[in-house]
Amino acid sequence: MLVLRGGTLIDGTGRTPVRxxxxxxxxxxxxxxxxGAAATWPSSAEVIDVAGMTVLxxxxxxxxxxxFHGYELASRWELNEPGSTRHLRTARVIAxxxxxGYTTVRDAGGLDAGFRAAIDEGLITGPRLLTAIAIISPVGxxxxxxxxxxxxxxxxxxxALPRGVANGVDEVRxxxxxxxxxxxDVIKCATTGGASSRAGHGPRDPAFDADEMRALVxxxxxxxxxxMCHALGGPGxxxxxxxxxxxxxHGCYLDEDPELIPMMAERRVFFVxxxxxxxxxSESRASHVRERSRALRNHHRESIxxxxxxxxxVVAGTDAGGHGHPPNAAELQxxxxxxxxxxxxxxxxxxxxxxxxxxxxxxxxxxxxxRADLVVVAGDPLADVKxxxxxxxxxxxxxxxAIAARR
Length: 407
Ligand SMILES: [Zn+2]
Known about the structure:
The chain is of the alpha/beta class and 407 residues long.
């Protein structure tokens, strides 16, 4: 039994913080949450005094690429170093992510299921992982490996990371099943280009037709997997929503079609804006990437405002990987700059994020019977959300009731 006493609790529900909170943890779960003198525990419990600090639910990143380490072609095609070096690099990123308070991460492509197994087995430390394995898109889509010269990548596909290119209804179903066979927890697809995609396949350019997308969603749901869809704008964005995807990733131009946000609210589709990556791209050395990111910025913010007003769950995802692995909590700072209150930004990375991952009953809030994933921070993140990015402020990380990091 572990007891955290004396801290201020932000429980993830959006309620006012509770001072002098005591959290009792037993068998990996929260056993009790009490305040002041009401708290009791057996003398055998390990008691940690967290007075003056803030206790939060373990943080969740709903869109990361833990195994990506650069946008350069040699890195993307995995030619720049041996696989062993790359995997160890990925393991280090995973361990650091947990030590920074991220107890759950959804990987949006590039991370094979072996990492999840390695964490479960205790070979490496890391967050609870959900992985999409690889991005599914048609020829020419963002999951297609083509160089700027038009050459296809002929490096043999790693069986743990099957190729995600699929054309036509039958092939789409086959590739979804292949991802599930490779261990996918969630299906990731793309119905538009993006900021960093090849010239000629931009944010409003579509990928997949309606039949292909309906087949993809239908097959994923039949296999018990949700669908996270990269969709920035134009007809591909509408297509994704009409096909029934569960979350819209990026969603920069949602404001351009007045029917889309109400549709998301009604169907309870989550919105993962991934502001961090566009901050990075807006300074890109590639002019087409820089221009695309700057052009979408105001639309993106407007989309977030309208989504919040309509009751759509806006959740935190960084799209980290290509641009390196800065602290994932940078996304909370960007969400606050885009108009969320600090309380909402924390919910976007805790309670709402857990719902987006289908884990709302287990994770995301500090309440009796939930899994004990907790972060203890020196200071008040509601006064300054940036402190969540600071290594020396993250004093204690607890995952499944066990201490994962302590400073
Ligand atoms: Zn991504």
